[in-house]
């Protein structure tokens, strides 16, 4: 009977675990290509880009194509698929989904969590503008990479100063403030305190230079003052009346503000931003 060398078991188990993790990592995909629009190499390229983005931004990304939206709008399908994929990162499920919907013939973006703050309505419209050209030419993988790269550029630019989430269902706005890394309230208060101190110092310096007190000093008003009165007459010679039509203000943009992120609620009640474009 052969002896079993138990001391090798931990090493073998560790090797098996390491191999299984490597296989899982190799099979990890952030692309759901139900419409069959991508080649294998294109899927690999999109996966590589998403892995880089997730490492850099700590937010989730996924690209989806479909030929059957299950009777839903593109936005509804995108929101539900984002939630079902579990790709969102953190307690607020931060991230984004890009959908090429061959059923409704639309491209669509769904955002959640901190990504809503970065990708405002105006920025999403700009991203869709870029992606539309590729989709219209049948370059579906290029459109996906364009969306990811444009999102990356906006994240690097940061959240705009007047960013706010506008709930399209309730009409309420949620502004981005200091407690979320936004408006620098502490810096403003610090500046006010420094300004007050500088003003007080200037006041006491000037007061010390003059050394005037109300009890001992009296200004020689009669000696130091004078009064000159002049009479001036204005005569109306001619009168002209000019009429001009004042144009109306231009209509507001669709977003209403460069910092607005319009949000809505999915079938599960979670809050999403996003937008879509027909092609």
Overview of this protein structure:
With 279 residues, the protein is an alpha/beta fold. The protein has helices at residues 9-27, 40-57, 74-85, 114-118, 121-136, 140-157, 185-210, 221-224; strands at 31-33, 60-66, 95-101, 106-112, 164-167, 173-175, 260-265, 271-278. Strands 1-2-3-4-8-7-5-6 form an 8-stranded mixed beta sheet, with helices on both faces. A hairpin with a 4-residue loop joins β3 (95-101) and β4 (106-112). The longest helix has 26 residues, at 185-210. Mean pLDDT is 82; it is low at 12-27, 179-183 and 247-256.
Structural class: alpha/beta
Describe the main β-sheet briefly. 8 strands, mixed
Give the total of beta strands.
8
Shape, principal axes of CA atoms: elongated
- Strand adjacency order, main sheet: 1-2-3-4-8-7-5-6
Please give the CATH class of the domain at 25-181 and 256-278: Alpha Beta
Mean pLDDT: 82
Tell me what the CATH architecture of the domain at 25-181 and 256-278 is. Roll
Order of helices and strands: HEHEHEEHHHEEHHEE
CATH topology of the domain at 25-181 and 256-278, what is it called?
Diaminopimelate Epimerase, Chain A, domain 1
Q: Radius of gyration from the CA trace?
A: 33 Å
Indicate the low-confidence ranges by residue numbers: 12-27, 179-183, 247-256
- Percent strand equals 15-25%
Q: Total number of helical segments?
A: 8
| Share of helical residues | 40-55%
Tell me the span between the first and last alpha carbons.
73 Å
């Amino acid at each position: 009977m052969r002896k079993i060398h138990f001391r090798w078991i931990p090493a073998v188990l560790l090797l098996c675990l390491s191999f299984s993790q490597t296989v899982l990592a190799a099979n990890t995909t952030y692309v759901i290509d139900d419409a069959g629009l991508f080649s294998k190499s294109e899927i690999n390229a999109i996966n590589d880009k998403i892995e880089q983005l997730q490492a850099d931004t700590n937010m989730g990304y996924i690209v989806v194509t479909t030929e059957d939206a299950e009777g839903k709008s593109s936005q509804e399908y995108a929101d539900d698929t984002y939630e079902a994929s579990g790709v969102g990162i953190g307690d607020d499920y931060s991230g984004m989904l890009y959908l090429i919907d061959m059923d409704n013939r639309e491209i669509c973006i769904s955002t959640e969590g901190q990504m809503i703050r970065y990708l405002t309505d105006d920025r999403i419209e700009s991203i869709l503008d870029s992606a539309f050209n590729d989709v219209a030419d049948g370059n579906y993988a290029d459109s996906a990479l364009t969306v990811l790269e444009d999102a990356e550029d906006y994240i690097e630019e940061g959240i705009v100063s007047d960013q706010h989430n506008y709930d399209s269902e309730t009409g309420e706005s949620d502004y981005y403030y200091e407690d979320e890394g936004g408006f620098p309230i502490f810096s403003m208060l610090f500046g006010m305190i420094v300004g007050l101190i500088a003003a007080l110092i200037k006041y006491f310096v000037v007061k010390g230079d003059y050394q005037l007190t109300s009890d001992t000093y009296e200004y020689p008003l009669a000696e130091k003052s004078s009064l000159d009165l002049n009479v001036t007459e204005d005569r109306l010679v001619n009168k002209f009346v000019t009429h001009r039509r004042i144009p109306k203000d231009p209509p507001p943009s669709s977003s209403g503000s460069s910092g607005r992120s319009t949000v809505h609620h999915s079938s599960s009640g979670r809050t999403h931003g996003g937008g879509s474009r027909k092609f």
